[in-house]
Design goal:
This protein has helices at 11-24, 59-69; strands at residues 3-5, 31-32, 50-54, 78-86, 92-95, 104-110, 123-127, 131-135, 142-145, 150-153, 164-172. It is of the alpha+beta class. It has a single domain (3-172), classed as Jelly Rolls. The strands form 2 sheets. Strands 1-9-6-11-4-3-2 form a 7-stranded antiparallel β-sheet, with helices on one face. It has a 4-stranded antiparallel β-sheet with strand order 5-10-7-8, with no helix packed on it. Strand 7 (123-127) and strand 8 (131-135) form a beta hairpin.
């Protein structure tokens, strides 16, 4: 099942995340999805990379926020979290996030102040319970699910006025 929670982050944290992106621009702090973080083939068909910015300073806040929202997150306390910067031409193919040796919960938080649906970057999913659908990347909307649910991000279009920013979270059991 795909769960959606609007207005998830506190406004000061949302501002701090945006500031982290702005102050990181032009610095050698970004990873690129083509460097192996995503796994083979996930970026196939993407015309541009997705930049990845570690955000360890937000880890404790995010763990506390998720555990307060749903007790299932107490069973998945090992968090990896990153900001993804989706440039025009970037996308990710359908995949399920499941790990054979480490059960997990997956989540995305959209942090752009505004996003036009003509810019792409939609979260697409094929949920065995809810069927196929999509989620528009509204500001401060959090989406989470328990893998395996196949999902993808549609390509960010060339007319996007700025990168699509999201926080990717993987809560692992071990």
């Amino acid at each position: 099942m795909i769960y959606k929670v609007p207005n998830f982050l506190d406004s000061d944290v949302l501002s701090a995340l945006r500031k982290k992106f702005e102050t990181s621009r032009g610095q050698a702090v970004f990873e690129v999805n083509h460097m192996g973080r995503w796994g083979k083939g996930l970026e196939a068909g993407s015309y541009a990379p997705v930049l990845i910015l570690p955000i360890p300073e937000f880890r404790d806040y995010l763990i506390e926020k998720y555990q307060a929202m749903d007790p299932i997150f107490k069973e998945y306390a090992n968090l990896n979290c990153f900001m993804h910067i989706w440039l025009p031409g970037s996308q990710i193919n359908f995949h399920h996030d499941a790990s054979d040796d480490n059960p997990r919960l997956s989540s995305t938080i959209y942090i752009n102040e505004n996003w036009n649906w003509n810019w792409g970057g939609l979260f697409l999913y094929d949920d065995p319970d809810a069927g196929q659908g999509w989620v528009y990347p509204h500001e401060n909307l959090m989406v989470w699910f328990k893998p395996p649910i196949f999902h993808a991000t549609s390509m960010v279009t060339a007319i996007a006025e700025h990168p699509r920013l999201s926080i990717q979270l993987f809560f692992n059991k071990y």
